[in-house]
Amino acid sequence: MSDLTKLTLKAALAGLKARDFSSVDITKAHIEAIEQARGLNAYVLETPDHALAMAAESDARLARGEGGALEGAPLGIKDLFCTEGVRSTAASKILGNFVPAYESTVTSQLWRDGAVMLGKLNLDEFAMGSSNETSAFGPVINPWRRSGSDAALTPGGSSGGSAAATAADLCLAATATDTGGSIRQPASFTGTVGIKPTYGRCSRWGIIAFASSLDQAGPIAKTVEDAAIMLRSMSGHDVKDSTSLPVEVPDFASYVGKSVKGLRIGVPKEYRVPGMPAEIEKLWADGIAWLKDAGCEIVEVSLPHTKYALPAYYIVAPAEASSNLARYDGMRYGLRAGGPSLTDVYEESRAQGFGEEVKRRILIGTYVLSAGYYDAYYLKAQKVRRRIADDFDQAWQTCDALLTPTAPSAAFALGEQSDDPIAMYLNDIFTVTTNLAGLPGLSLPAGRDAQGLPLGLQLIGRALDEGTLFSLAGALEKAAGFTAKADRWW
Ligand code: GLN
Known about the structure:
Blueprint: H1 9-17, H2 23-36, E1 43-46, H3 48-63, E2 74-78, H4 105-112, E3 116-121, H5 160-167, E4 173-178, H6 184-190, E5 193-196, E6 216-221, H7 224-234, E7 264-268, H8 278-293, E8 297-301, H9 309-324, H10 342-353, H11 356-369, H12 375-395, E9 401-405, H13 421-425, H14 432-437, E10 441-448, E11 454-461, H15 466-480
Parallel strand pairs: 2-3, 7-8, 7-9
Antiparallel strand pairs: 1-3, 4-6, 5-6, 5-10, 9-11, 10-11
Helix pairs in contact: 2-3, 5-6, 8-15, 9-11, 9-12
The structure holds glutamine (GLN).
């Protein structure tokens, strides 16, 4: 049998349905691949027994001619999703060996549709970071390397485990989350496809909170169509999350391959930032040309408040994080340290349990929310956020979607930016705007830099218009013809 881990999700689902191979077969193939790839540090917990039991149940359903939309497909789960009876850590020491008593809505929908869980994937601690280096389990290593170099590169963050595992064929696809770019930037760094849907498309229930007004779940997958298949299962209204939207979930995959003729594509001039590598300029120009060839009309648009997006994000996100993370006090979850007084326990548990970046965010967030500074920082940032959303509304008068690069660089080496938080935050320059405005954003691999590393293009759409993004991404995927995989060294 050929290597089942190399299949796309779509091909695997077809093979499972046709009973060319069983779910146990494809699950075993992935378990072996994961064992051989421990050097990538993509999984923080492997659950092979659990996976094989789920696969056997899937096989029984398939034998009866039953089965859901993901029946028998082995997936990886970012360790920010609570999984019932399976350790969930957010890659933080403070959660210790926390074993949730409940399942997140998104993952429960995947199991409802027949998917198989291979294990939990590494991430930046509490999803704060752009390189996976803030994880308490150590960084994920990108399967891609610069040509002629064996330097370890970051897979991006925070969903670095999800991206690396998908790129290295350690799962057919993975769940991820995106608060400021954590699905799209790792997808761009690893040659995979990722979509952050509209805020409210996926339930946040059971996803460990970072910044609740920005957090959104989405998939990382090998192809545009695979991402569409995943997103359909992950989406849907949930009464347990008051911000989840009571709207129909379209068959996203049916948009892939649809004509994009006549669509108007906006190119925002403010995304042409100083110092952008020529290769990224070229990739963007290629993307524009490909969409033109496919019959789109290209229009220049202006999003004048773009330059305030990053500063606003780095106020709003830490503010919400400082509030969300107040619950980790050594009393109810995970790590407990210190004593003998209650205050000692609070202080010691938090001092030992949180990593440096998380502490930095809590400090910034507490500061910007404090009396006397609230108006100057938090309130101001909220006003900027409104302006950014207004900019997009204005753009939709003249275009149907926007095309931009996903990230300002290709994958960088581990350690290269970890001493400089500002440099690290600049990774999010093209991605945070959609989180602030609640809009969908998709990244797909569209080219490679001079050192052979993948580069992603980002499509941004109107609220709840993921369908158009999937059509456009399908057209770009076809034109770009990106089929390269990382040479296996692990
Ligand atoms: N890199 C951004 C941050 O560190 C985004 C993280 C995310 O989307 N979860 O906040």
